[in-house]
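Handout, page 2. Input:
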Amino acid sequence: MKVPRIESRLGANASAVQQAATVLTGIDPVAGALAFLPLVDYKLITNYPSVQLPQGKLACIPVIQGNNLDEGTLFGQKTLNSSAEFETWVRSAAVIYNTSYAETALQQVFENYPDVPSEASPYYNAQTATSAGTTQNLDSRIYEPFASNQYKRSSSFYGDFTFNAHRRTYLQGTQLRGRRNKDKTWSFQFSQNDKSPVSCIATI
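Output:
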């Protein structure tokens, strides 16, 4: 297969690309959504990972991958003030390709991500010798109105939907029967909170 030339994309002006992304998200913004989603062109990107992974179409190389404990806190929505608004946001931000299954999947999301701040992100993170941890105010909604704000709930969903789910799916693909790298796959979770400006937001 001849791979299409991508030099023009690699040489694109970064400011111009950023401006285009800003324009696109400004037309009909969906908080937490990306301006440019991965595109399957059936040449360079031959199919969706969800199609290729079950077929075993991934490189047989050692894999080390992981996530932060609280991936979604940087992207959590501070202005969702009711369960109804959370559900509307999820319907707008989540891309579900199997449309016949969409409503069932959405109802499972709403059930698995209940409006219970103490169970949401930022999650409990025990203090250690090298980490300040996250152990207090776990039931706080962080932003007003404190009785109904959905920030922590949206942080949990966004972190799982955008980061954790893909990592876990890929790891499952590496463990398929006959994989030469089956015993050379590792995963980690980074939970340190050192109170730096970045780690306080995203536990990096």
